[in-house]
Amino acid sequence: MSVIPVAQVAHFLGFDLPDASAIQSARLQALAAGIQGEATPTSLISYSSTGLVALIGPLASALSVVEDFSDAPVCLILATEGGITGGTETRQVAGRAVPVIYGQPKAVSGFLGKFGIVVGREEGDIDLAQAMDLSGGYVDMVLDLRREPALTQEVLPPGYFAPRGDSLALDEACQSIRELTGQFEKPRYVLYESDTCAHSARGILGCRRCLEACPADALSSVGEKIAVDPHLCHGMGSCAAACPTGALAYAYPHRVDTLNSLRHVIRTFRDQSGLAPLLVFFAGDEGGSQIASHLPRLPDTLIPWRTEEVGSTGPEVWLSALAYGASSVLVMTADNTPGSVMSSIERQAGEIQALLRGLGWHTGSIEAVSAQGLVERVSSSAVQPGENFKPATYAGMDEKRAVLRAAIDHLVSQTGVMPPGEIEMPAGSPFGEIRVNAEKCTLCMGCVSVCPAGAILDDKERPCLSFIEWNCVQCGLCAQACPEQAIQLHARVLTDGQARMQRRVLNEEAPFECLSCGKPFTTLSMIRKMEEKLSGHRMFVGEGLDRLKQCEDCRVKSMFEG
Asked: Which residue(s) pair with 143 in the sheet?
C-alpha cells in the first residue's frame, strides 16, 4: 500500500484524522485520492486600498475610535451628530489632522478601495470624496459606528464594517482595517451565462432563485438578465447552487473538479473498506474545528469534505455523491451561515428529498444539519445502499442539467424495484411539465418566444406546440406570457429517462387558409378568438369581419381596393 500523504489531507481539511484502524486508513486513502490534481483555474478580482477609512457616526464616538487608531491608515469622519449639517472642520487627534464633515449619509455603495458616500444636505446632496477633495474620488473603507448602519445585507461588502455597538466586533473591525492597505486579489467565484438564464423575458419576471439566495446583494436584475458584481461577491455559492438552468456556475472549485474529486473519494473508500461512506460537506476553519471536536463520537465511515462555502454545492453534486456510492450526504451549516443561504439549502434539500422518497431511498439521504446536530444525526443507523448497488462511473460534466440527468437516471436504475412512473415534487421545484388547455390555446406561440431552456417548441411546417419535459425548469415565464391563461405548471419528475427527453405534442391544429389566396397563415382558434374580441368594432362589421380571415397581403389589398 502506498504511503498516505497525511499532511496534505490535514492541510485540505484543516484538522488531523486518526489512522489507527483499517477504516480510518481507508478514509485517509480516499481523501488523498480526492485532493490530487490541479484545480481548473479561474480569473482573479483585484482590490486596491490606500488605507483611507471613513468613520460614520456621532462625532464623540468617532473621535474616540480615531484616538485608538494611532497606527491605522488615514481617517476622516462623517459626523452624524455634534455639529451643523454641511459644516467642515479639522480636528487634531493623537497628533494628526483628521478632517470632519457634518451630515447624514444618504447612500453608501461600493467595496474595498472604491466606496462612494452621498451626504444629504438641505442645499443639495454632495459626494463625500468630492467635498473633502479626496484624490481618486473614493474612500477605501467604511467604519459605520451607528446602531443602524447604512448597509444591512447579511454579508457586507469587503471593506465595510458595522459593529452595531458591539465592542468586540469594533475591535475586530479595527484590526481588519489595519490590515487592508495594499493590493488584494480573490478568485472570481461565479460565472454567468445569460443565454440560459430564466430570470426574465419580454418584460415578464420569471425565476428569482439566485436573487433570493445571495446574502451579499452581489446580484441584481438588469433588464431581462442578472448582473453579477464580482467585487461584492463573497463566493457563498448559493446562487449557483439554486440556479435551475446552470446559467450561474460556481467557478472555484469548478463543478467538474468537485465531481471528479468526490467520485475518486467515494470509489477509493468503497474499494478499501467495502463500505459506503457518509459524506459531510463543511466550510471554513469554523466548520473544520467543529467536526474535529466531535471526531471521537463520529463513525469512521464519515468522510468530511471541505468546501469553499457551505452553500456552494447543490442538488447535482449531492445526487451525484449518492450515485457514486455514498450512503448519505449531509450539508453542515454553522451559526454564522447567512439566513438566505440556509433557506436556499433547506429548500433544495427538501426538493431532492421528495425525489429520493419517490425512489424509495431512506429519509435523510440528503439533509442539512447543524454542527450541534451532526453527532445525533449520524448516530442513527443509516441504511446502506443494497449489495447489488453499482456505483456510477460518469465523470464530472460542465452542464448542470446533464449532471442531474445522469445522477437521476443512475439512481432510478439502482432502485431494485419498479419505480413509479412519475414522482410528485414540491411546487416551485425546477423539474416538471406544463399543461396546456387546448380549448383556450390559440397556438400564438408566445410561450415559445419566452422559454429560456428550449422546453417549449413550435413547428415551422404546421401550427403545433410541443414540449421536452427535461428542459423545463418551471420558471413560469410561459404561463405569464400566455394571453389566454391556458398554461399551468406541474412540478414532477418522470422516472423514465427517455420519456423525460422525448418531444411530445401539447396542442396542434390544421392551419387556417386565407379566404382569398388559400395561403395558410394562422389557426381556426385564433380566428375565432379575434372574431370574439373584435365583433363589436365598427371596422369589423359585416364583410369587414371577413378581413380577419385573410392573410396580411390580401387584407391590405382588399382594404385599398374596397
From this structure: 55, 161
Q: Which of 208, 225, 250 is the last residue of a domain?
A: 250
C-alpha cell at 242: 439554486
- CB contact set of 128 (below 8 Å; sequence gap of 6+): 54, 78, 101, 105, 116, 117, 118, 119, 134, 139
CA dist 161 and 290 (Å) reads 26
In angstroms, the CA 362 to CA 418 distance is 16
Q: Using one digit for the tens of pLDDT, what is the confidence trace for 207-233?
A: 999 999 999 999 999 989 999 999 999
**For 325, left (φ over 0), alpha (ψ -120 to 50), or beta?**
left
pLDDT confidence bin for 5, thresholds 50/70/90: confident
CA angle, 322 as apex, 496 and 291 as ends, to 5°? 155
Peptide bond between residue 483 and the one before it cis (omega within 30 degrees of 0): no
Give residues with Cβ within 8 angstroms of 476, minimum separation 6.
206, 207, 489
DSSP of 212-265, one letter per residue?
A: HH-SS--EEEETTEEEE-TTT-----HHHHH-SSSSEEEBTTBHHHHHHHHHHH
**Residue in this structure with the C-alpha cell 470509489, named with its chain if needed:** 267
Q: Is residue 419 part of a domain?
A: no
Residues 113 and 158 in one domain: yes
How many angstroms separate the CA atoms of 425 and 355, rounded? 7
Looking at the 3D structure of the chain, how many domains does it have?
5
Q: What's the predicted TM-score (pTM) here?
A: 0.89
CB 397 within 8 A of CB 403: yes
Cβ(103)–Cβ(56) below 8 Å:
no
